[in-house]
Structure formats: C-alpha cells, structure tokens
User: Fold these one by one.
Assistant:
Number 1:
Amino acid sequence: MASVGPSAASTQPALPSGPAVFKTIPYAFILPEILCGTWVWILVAATSVSLPLLQGWVMYVSLTSCLISLLLLLSYLLGFHRNSENWKVLDSLYHGTTAILYMSAAVLQANATINSEFGVNAPLNYQLNSAASFFAFLTTFLYILHAFSIYYQ
C-alpha cells in the first residue's frame, strides 16, 4: 500500500527563525515597516508641530508601532516563538490592528500637511509634512500586506 503523503499538521509552514526572517514573506515586511515608521516620526518631529493633537497621535502610533515591531522582529530572530501557531495569530492581530491605527494616523498627517501649506515656515514644514504623509501611507500599506499575507499563508 502506497503512502498517501505527509499529514496535515506537517504541511503547515514553519515560522522562520534567525536570518531566515528576512527571506520569508510576510516576515520580511517587518524591517521595512520599522524603517518607514521611523521616518514618519523623524519627519513629524522635524516640523514645527502646529497641530499637536493631530500630529501627537501620529507620533504616538508611529513610535509605539516601531518599538513593538522591533520587539516582534527580535523575538523572531531569537526564536522565541518555538514554532507555535499562536504566534501567527498574534502577529496577524497585531499587524491588522496596527494597520487600522496607522491609517488613522496617515489621514491625520495628511490633514496636518494641508493645514501647514500656508502657515509659519510654510515651504519647509509643508515639504516635511508631505514626506511624513507619504511614509505614513506607505507604512500603512506594509502593515496591511503583512496582516493579509499571514492570513493567506
């Protein structure tokens, strides 16, 4: 009698550890998420924050997301997940929630960009806010890609 093949449990892809994290989709998105998110808060911090309520939320979301994503990246690099399926659920929930929060921050940053067009130090602040808006939307897209890639994996 011929063997039917591997069991359903063994067909699940293993979670990457070490340098394999940078070669495996969706985990390879973590480093670009951190870098783009870092650019968001650096660019917002470089402006004369004229709308502290709007840009305060942008700073909070970007900085918190960067730190948590960095911890998640380190946990994958060091193998803390021990190939548990719960890590996939945690990763998907985190990236889905962060994508929603980042979308709200990106929209608020775009509003701050529009409001900074004719303010004090208008050309410089407008350019910095425009770049921050671009990176905020790019980071949102990366978090969405990551969340859906885990779901469809």
Note: The longest helix spans residues 85-115.
Number 2:
Amino acid sequence: IVVTGSDDHLWKMWALPDGNIIMTGEGHTDWLSGCCCHPSGTQLVTSSGDTTVQLWDFSKRGCILTLEGHAGTVWDCSWHSCGNFVASASMDNTSKIWDVNSERCRYTMCGHKDSVNSIEFLPFSNTVLTSSADKTLSLWDART
C-alpha cells in the first residue's frame, strides 16, 4: 500500500503491485505534508499546510477527527505504537501529543527555535524524537 498527496488537497491510497486506487480522502483545505498508518492498519493520520491533523478510518471511508491547535503548517505526524496517541510537528516551532480517545492535545513540546520538521515515537516507548530547522534533534519524554 502506498499513500500519496497532491496539490488538490486529496490523498490516495494505492494497492501494490497492481496500482489500483483503494481509497481517496478529501478534507484538508491545503496541501498534505505527511501521513502515517495506525499500528493496526485500520486508520491513517495526515498533516497539512492548513494547520490541522486529520484521522481517517478505512472502514468508514472518511475523516473521523480533525485536531486543531497548531498556529502554523503541520509538517509531520506519527502514531504511538499503542495506537491511542498521535504526535505532530509544526512550523510554529512546537510539537504536540494528541490523545485520540479524548480528542484533545495532551502535551505541547516547546524548545526548538525554528520549525519542527519531523516527529517520531520510538517503538514501544514514551520517547519522541523531533528534528528542527534550528539544526537540532531533540528527545522528549511524552509523559512529562
């Protein structure tokens, strides 16, 4: 499976090796910057220039949640291995940990002096790795 974004604010999921489109999502109002599949393979999270993060459910064939709170483009997103948390990295110099069950931001991580360009949970851990345009990498404890 391959997921691609486009300038028309749509994302498409393609099956390999035949290249058939499995699903198309429309909901962001600006370009897509990142995506990550849920550990169970049943959902997708996307990030966008519209400052939001969206969760998509494959069985419902649509967006089930829009997370708002960043003040700038959201460059990247990532699922925690438990599937209950999403991390986002933004041009507003912050990253956030979102609780998808309560549908709200649990933590905002401040400290980078420029855009946070990527974010990733370390596997089976509460540690988050961010990279920034300020030329630094940071490790964060998502519990604190």
Note: The chain has a mean pLDDT of 88.
